[in-house]
Each structure stands twice: as C-alpha cells, then as structure tokens.
Amino acid sequence: MERSSPGGATGSQTGARSKVRIKQENDGDSNATHSHTVYVRFSARDKNKFTRTCTQPRTVLELLKLSGRTWSDENIVIQMGRADKECIIATHFPCTCINEGELLTLSYEKLKVEARGQNEQPILSRDRYSVFYIEKEGGINTTTKKLFKNNAAIKKFKFVVVYGEKGMTVKEAVERDGRFIDDLGDFTLSHNENPDCHTDCTEPVDSDTLDGKKFKLCLEREKGNTIPPPAVVHQIGISVTTAMKKPDGTVDVEEIYEKLRKQFPDLKEWMESRFPGDSYQKALNLKSKDFGKIQQSFSEVHRVRDILELGKSVCKVIVEGYSVGTGFVLFDKYILTNAHLFKGCTEGQTLKQGVNVSVLFNYEKPEPFPKYHVFQVAGSFICFVEDELDYAALELNPEEITEYKGIKKTKVPPGLLNKFGPIPQNGEACIIGHPGGQVKQMDPICIIEKENRGQAVAGHVESYRDTLVTIQLVHHLIKNQGIDQIMMGGKRAENVSTYNTYMYHGSSGSPVFDAHGRVFGLHTRGYVYDFPKKGSVIELAQTLLTIFEHFVKVLKKDNQLDLLKRVEKEAKGNSDLEKIFESVVGKKVEPDVPEEILGSIESMKIG
Question: What is the mean pLDDT of the chain?
C-alpha cells in the first residue's frame, strides 16, 4: 500500500529557506525561494486531478483556495496521498511539509470536523516542524472515550497527521490541531513499532522519535475508590465525588471532607484567607454592579467611536518561529509591547541573527480578504526590560512596508503616548488586541481594585467548589506563578491594574483604555491553569506611567538626547507625563551644542 510521508520532503523543497517571511500575496522574495507542485481532486470519485503550483509558504487551505472555489472551512476533510483512506491533514497544515507532486483529495462533512482559527503563526521551513501520525483507533483506556470532534468523519481514515513547531509540546500540537476534543486531558503516545514505548504529552515535539512516526493515543485509567494524589488528579481531571463514589453509586460527603482535611491541611486556612465570611457573595454583587457601569459607558456610541479610532494604532506582533502578540504605536515609528514575546531570541538589546519580527496594522478582517499592511522591525531595541517591568520599545523600518492586495504604502498610525493616563478609579476600561493572533478585538472590562483581588480570585476558584482537589491544585499553580505579589502587601500590588478578560493568550502588549479614551495599561499576563479546562483566575496590566518613567530614565542614562527631546515634545500638554519627565530629566532637554551656535551653523550651511 502506497503511503504519504511528510517527513520525507527533500531538502531542496524545504530546507533551502532558513527563514520564511510572513505570508504575503505579492511577496517577490518568497516567490524566488519557494516553489512546489501538488495535485488536487475535489472528490474521491473524481478521476480528474488539477495542478496547483505553490509559490510562497502558506497553509494547505490557502493553497486549495487558489482554485477560486468556496466551501465551509470547518467541514472540509483533506486526504493526503494516493493510498485510499490512509491519512488526513488539517486545513492549516503547512505546505512546506507536503511533498513535491503530492495528491490531495477533498471531501465534505455535514458536521464540523475541526475548529477554525487554529493557526495564526507564519509558515516555517520543513526543518522547523515535527510531523507525526496518530491512529484513528485509540490505545489504552480509549474504548469509552470520544477522541475527535467528528468521530464519524475521522473513522473513515487510518491516520490523523499532526504537526508542531519545534519547541512546543506534544499536547500543544494536538490541542492546536483542532480536530481532537477540547477536554482530551493528559495522554501519552504509544509507538506503533514498539507499543511498550510511550511519549508523554508534555515532551517537546523536537524529538527524533516523533517525526515521521506512527502512534496510538493512550489515556490514563480512572480510579474510583480513593482520592488520588494531586499529580494524578492533574492528569486525569476527575472530581472528588467521582473518586469517592461507592459501588452502589452513593457518596459519603463527610468522608470526602475528612479525607481532604487530612490530605490538604492548608486548604481550609487558604480558603478562609481568600474567602472570609460572605465575601464571595459580596464579590459577585460588586462584579454585577461594576459590569452595569461598563455597559453604560461602552454602549455610548461616541465613546466606542473614539476608542476604535485610537485602536488604529494597535498592531499584531509576529516574532517568526517564536511567538505572536500585540503592540501599539508609542510615537513616530516606535511601538510598545511586552518583552516576554522575544524570550529566547535576543542577545542583550539586539535580536539574534536571523530572527524576523513583523508588525501588522489594520488586521481586522479574516482571510481570504484582509487589508492589513506590514512593517518590519529593526534589529535593536530602544528599550528592553524583562524583569518586573516586562516591556519592549522597538523601532519600525517605515521604508520596508509590504504592499498587500493593492494597498498603497502608508504611514505608521498615530502614537498613543500623549494619551497616557493613570489607572481609572471607577472600574471602567477596555482592551484592544489580537487574542490568539486573531483579528483585532475589543473587550470591555471591569477594574478589580487591589483590595478586592483576593475576593475575585476566590470567587473564580469557587466555581469548582464541588471538586475541592481541583481548588487546591489551581491554588498551587497560581501561587507558583507569583500571584501573591499582586495581592495586598505584595511588592507589585501598587504598580499593576487587574481585571477579568478572555484576552490572555496572544494579547500580551495590548493597550488598556479607560472610558475617556486615555490609555493607562500594558496588558501583560493572566494567572492561568489548564485543568479541568483552560482558564485564568485574574489578568493584569502594567501601569503605563510607571513604564514611561523607566523609559525616560533609560534614555537619559544612554544619553539619547534626540529621542528625549522627541518624547518631551510628545508629552507636552499631558500633565501626568510632564510631571514625570520633569522629575527625571528636568524642565528642558539641553542639546550638547548651544542653540545659538547651532543656528549659526545652519545659516552657514544655507549660505
């Protein structure tokens, strides 16, 4: 039986490009270095094959759409290879992982096959991926477990082909795939050639034991007589009541609490400290009251219009091969974002050789009809801080803008520096960013004052009150992430703004606005957990006035007088910025040469 093996792509097809730029329709450089041909059948019963020549790195769905045909992306099934019913790939599968002359056969299902928007990353060269096969029939402990969103569609084939960028884990690759169920939990991969050899889902995909190999997906066996230790509960995600259920189906609640008290002696103390008396109900009432304020402020058309206008300065930041985040224009050709987006790809204040950073403005509509424009980022940082102040200021190359779909070259949008302001006191705010690298989105939020953060976290965790082991494990996770630092008395309590938002993956670097259009925060992180489902107990932004003060100090220390004068000019009229600038630099930035001498020199030049 003839098989297709993405792992067998030749170096001439995939390895020649050490770096692949962001996909662009009219990218001449990509056309010169990337070219291969595939064949497409639009039905398994169709004897006709159509040639598709790919001239730039893209997803397989983008390659198929070159035909001009339209269909529902979520319902399409793409078989790869000439062997009947052998293996299927996702719509976002990279074309660089497809062999020259490969055959792709399309079919369609009434129900959704995969989730949309799974891959917003740029397409990389073949050597940056690991591609492996997972059998449709699961391995150990999967006989009663649904593995795929559309089992009926998947079971027509033998293998599901999964890919991952080197550096991500097996679990991340499977979750990003979009065809597996969302609550799959932890698992292992059993090697088909050696069934006793298992790869844990937390392992990186870089391993040579994965690429081009075939596996069965195996789950952990659930236990029902005793409360499992935290590590096991983390793996299998079962509730306490399930673990303690007797053979007749009844549950002894007192026995559960007694075992929990013995197993987690600090649980009661922690719950009482975070959740005293009736504070949970009070927190809910407070949240309801503040949300009413948000609805009132951000339902006023003029406010929304003003926020959207300012949102034109927000951009998607792509660190190719590393991460995707959000940023916004600070002033002129400088943008502000989070430093952690560049983790692993910097050397001091400079990007490593070969690391490419792109910035997309106006990315507000999804493919296939986007109208965004792209700038490249210079190799050096104006300022890069990675400790308590997690921010990076970068310079754009305005001459390197990419024209896209007939859009003419354009200027960098206006900066937001002169809109900086303090944290609002009335709890009304709004974030604009690119969560998950998707199109630009906005989320009205409610500021959680520092004295209410403990209640807010306890209120979120309380939603798992019927699974107290889960409460303990979530507490352990967020404590290890340093959540105590932002609580009352913590060293970061005064210098961050906290709230709840869904925008905590891929939104790092988003500006946070108040109801009057002032930008006061740099959205930075959430305190997250991944069981029994993915979530975040609270999210935070760093205060921009604190970042501005540090930024000015760095410019002064490095004697960057030209930039200091530009910042001073931009801050004019903003009392908060003027006060900070004067306290750090003085009333006026003096040039190295007196102005009268500079004037004489300029007169001589003119003469």
Answer: 77
